[in-house]
Amino acid sequence: MTLIDSLPPRPLEPQELTSLNRAEAFELVVAVESDGPARGVLFATETWVKGVAYDDDSGWTLVETVELDDETARIDGLQTCEAAIHAFQGEENEE
């Protein structure tokens, strides 16, 4: 099962983000939005960061993946994925 397949077919509630943060599969799960249901979410493990975004028409989409290594720190991966989510959401809002 992929990350996208494991998400519900709607934006995530704050309690769900808390549950995902407690899961052993991820080291960090954080919403891009500061309040309300999360339509943009960053998932991080020791080796990668993934940015996913929710759209009412197509559901969840993986918009960016950054592999972490000696040259790419987690914060850089988080920032790259967050920017990709904002770009994706901006494109969706223009339609």
UniProtKB/TrEMBL annotation:
This is DUF7964 domain-containing protein. InterPro entries: DUF7964 (IPR058270). Residues 3-88 form the DUF7964 domain. It comes from the Archaea.
